[in-house]
Amino acid sequence: MSVFARGGLGPLCAAARAVIPCLWRGKYFSSGREPAETQVTPMLRHLIYKIKATGPITVAEYMKEVLTNPAKLLGIWFISEWMATGKNAAFQLVELGPGRGTLAGDILRVFSQLGSVLKNCDISIHLVEKTPQGWREVFIDIDPQVSDKLRFVLAPCVTPAEVFIQRDEMRDHVEVCPEAGIIIQELSQRIALTGGAALIADYGHDGTKTDTFRGFCGHKLHDVLTAPGTADLTADVDFSYLRRMAEGEVASLGPIKQQTFLKNMGIDVRLKVLLDKSDEPARQQLLQGYDMLMNPKKMGERFNFFALLPHQRLHGRSHPMNACQSKPSVSPVAGFGELAWR
């Protein structure tokens, strides 16, 4: 991972965009229906000023700006203090200073979106596309035809994100996440050194999908470049990339679909026990919850489970045993094999 942190390609690309800006090749694609007109949000104005000052930004930079902008962090701070002081119903948010209350408005929007903010991991992706000149990273720039609109462009030169592309990669579009790789490497080293395990559950695929970067607003698909700051941005986890980052340090299992994992964990038996003890309204709630978790068209096949374990957990002890110890039998890892009743 140190190649990404210390690579000498950053200055080269900065120089390229300053000296030969005309080589930035524009392209456009959308994750949702095109709106009738552009909504100029405070976040959009901020991004336009930033791009004008420093040049096109990576998709990772864009996601960080939109998802962890200071207004959102301030909103979380206020909520934290409100919870720490007893969750008083009489809550006042006062912004002192010149202006039109824009910051306070941003913070109030955070309050309404707090659930999605708190569960966001702040792990951003880099989009990389195969071109006749080789792999090129996708950046975000200002549309020259519409001054208050953003567009995707291809970098004119190699960028550090391309280090993470496999030599035998067959896809034309790849989403890479160096931060996720660092987290997996740190988890793997800790598990290899001190034991333990990691269970990762998320939307994802095993290195088969290409363009999964998308936005959601009001539970509907939303163009990722339209009205930034008003929608949640997400991308699927590439579990094959996580497996490569953990390789050698620990063993990995999965990914397997949530439907299969929960079935292996005995969710059907658990549901039957709960239904037998519940009245009719509670039964309906249980069945609706079960359907949401297990239905392939809902979360059943959209969520995946992936585990990191010490090698000896799957293959037995890796160090010599004394005469008083009996060789342990390797038990199956729960959730990753069919449930066996004894």
List keywords for this structure.
alpha+beta, 6-stranded antiparallel sheet, 4-stranded mixed sheet, 14 helices, 18% strand, SAM-dependent_MTases_sf, EC 2.1.1.320, protein-arginine omega-N symmetric methyltransferase activity
For the termini, the CA-CA separation is 46 Å
Number of strands: 13
* Arithmetic mean pLDDT: 80
Q: Helix/strand-derived class?
A: alpha+beta
Instruction: Note the overall shape.
Output: globular
Assign a percent range to the helix content: 25-40%
Largest sheet: 6 strands, antiparallel
Give start-end ranges of low-pLDDT stretches.
Answer: 1-22, 28-33
Strand % is 15-25%
Q: Which series of helices and strands comes N to C?
A: HHEHEHHHHEEEEHEEEEEHEHHHHEH
* Count, helices: 14
Multimeric organization: single chain
Radius of gyration, in Å, reads 24 Å
3D architecture notes:
This protein has 342 residues and is α+β, with helices and mostly antiparallel strands. It contains 14 helices and 13 strands. The strands form three sheets. Strands 1, 2, 3, 4, 5 and 6 form a six-stranded antiparallel beta sheet that branches. A four-stranded mixed beta sheet has the order 11-7-13-12. A hairpin with a 2-residue loop joins β3 and β4. It is globular, with a radius of gyration of 24 Å. It starts with a helix and ends in a 27-residue tail after the last helix. The N terminus is likely disordered. Its EC number is 2.1.1.320. Pfam families: Methyltransf_28. Belongs to the NDUFAF7 family. GO terms for molecular function: protein-arginine omega-N symmetric methyltransferase activity. This is Protein arginine methyltransferase NDUFAF7.
